[in-house]
């Protein structure tokens, strides 16, 4: 794997491999490493039993969706179909050129500037960098009309300016209109909203992110209720009614805020309804992600 991941977990995984004979994998979370070690409980009688007990104690503080008696991978979250009212889904696996809509609805994303492929959360992902590089489409399906859900895996490569536009349908002309997922210089994801008559709101996720790691960002707008969720965290909500912009839906540069994109964007989906909490958790899939057509 070329994508960076937590060096502390790598070190823990290597030590647990020596002590317990487990097989650590790239992107193993703490929960997964604990599960693998816990699967050896009762099978050892070594000076490292205290460490094994400590890992089991850690397990007891973690979520209940880890099956200690299963195999070496985390038990997935609920397998809830998210196919209904899917407007578009881009896997971003193309090495260059257009990114095809896997939903079959024909909403092809066309590159402007240079958009390369890098390591995505699942297979490849689109690298959007610089002031003008982006993927865009003009379609009434992406007017921002309520209700809708937008989801994407996003990895930031570094800070460029005050904010990095990621996914949205937003214009800064006049007073601004529409919605935009962006990554801020504070290393927090936010949902920016504008109504075209001077009203604007930012709904910011409360947890800082780590550059070089993928995060699942899901936003929903339903009437005046607007939410953002990162990974399997809680929804952060506020009330606002964004306006409908007259510009493209874009992945990458939006010509707004004070920054330019420097990120990898993968697995982008748009639904013209609000996904349930279980559906969001299913897309998260214990951090492994789930690609259309979302198999169980």
Secondary-structure element string: HHHEEEEEEEEEEEEEEEH
CATH architectural grouping of the largest domain: Sandwich
CATH fold-level name of the largest domain: Jelly Rolls
Q: State the shape.
A: globular
Beta-strand segment tally: 15
* Largest sheet features: 8 strands, antiparallel
Report low-confidence residues grouped into runs of 5 or more.
Answer: 63-77
Question: From the alpha-carbon coordinates, what is the Rg to the nearest angstrom?
Answer: 20 Å
N-C termini distance? 25 Å
CATH class division of the largest domain: Mainly Beta
Strand content: 25-35%
Structural class label: alpha+beta
Number of H- or I-type helical stretches: 4
Task: Describe the protein's architecture and organization.
The chain is of the alpha+beta class and 296 residues long. It has two domains: 54 residues, no CATH class; 202 residues, Jelly Rolls (Sandwich). The chain has four helices and 15 strands. Strands 1, 3, 4, 6, 11, 12, 13 and 15 form an eight-stranded antiparallel β-sheet that branches. The longest helix has 14 residues. It is globular. The two termini are 25 Å apart.
